[in-house]
């Protein structure tokens, strides 16, 4: 065999090894995600199906904002009028601790500037993923959820239960 043949075989080996590494990275779904907010669309991390986007995205396994950064969680309905019909959008109103508010501002800055989204995970399950359209500077956040009202109430109870456990 000539040097060119060895070089070609070595190149093919490197290409196949790189593909194997990428495949193993994509199929990592064993990591447990603690309750909190995470950056979605990361190129590394755990591959998760995000129902609100109807597609699979990567989630960095480092919690960006832990659930304990939330001070208060309540269910809210916001009314909106479109034409002659009035509709209510239900979701969660989240009030953060001062430290949690700073972390949320940093998270929205990252998501806005890098065109990524943020996802809320509870008990290793994604609840909602949302796009950030502007930098947010406020202590209260309304997280609109496309879920039935009863499920939103259950979610509120689950978050408040986790907050009580952590205190």
From TrEMBL:
Keywords for this protein: Signal
Signal peptide: 1-23
Domain of life of the native organism: Bacteria
Protein name: Uncharacterized protein
Organism of provenance: Cellulophaga geojensis KL-A
